[in-house]
Specification:
Shape: elongated
Structural class: mainly alpha
Number of strands: 3
Helix content: 40-55%
Order of helices and strands: EHEHHEH
Radius of gyration: 16 Å
Distance between the termini: 6 Å
Length: 111
């Protein structure tokens, strides 16, 4: 591992332009970006488990569609911003085994 800690970023609040100034080097962070199909699968699994707030709305299908559209726009913003700043990102699409993304991220960090 590098001497300085690496950061694996997941979540909407960690915008690349806010995290980048805190990094010792650009290669010390990576953003995980969900593919649209992967995100839909997550929504469906949460809904099936009864854990999605969209199921408690007047129109769950519309709420899920609106949420998916919002997430897609935000993911595009993250993809553009990480590329512009020169920070690594990895698209997560659910086709890899659990070890696949782990190995790719380790490679990004030079491990």
């Amino acid at each position: 591992m590098p001497r300085e800690p690496c950061v694996l970023v997941e979540g909407f609040r960690l915008l690349p332009h806010l995290v980048e100034p805190l990094l010792p080097a650009p290669g010390h962070a990576a953003w995980l970006l969900p593919a649209p199909g992967f995100r839909r699968a997550v929504f469906r699994s949460r809904a099936a488990a009864g854990g999605s707030f969209t199921q408690r709305t007047g129109d769950p299908r519309r709420a899920e569609g609106d949420l998916a559209a919002r997430d897609a726009l935000f993911t595009l913003r993250l993809r553009v911003e990480t590329a512009r700043i020169g920070l690594p990102s990895l698209t997560v699409d659910g086709t890899l085994t659990e070890d696949g993304p782990t190995e790719r991220v380790a490679g990004m960090f030079g491990v």
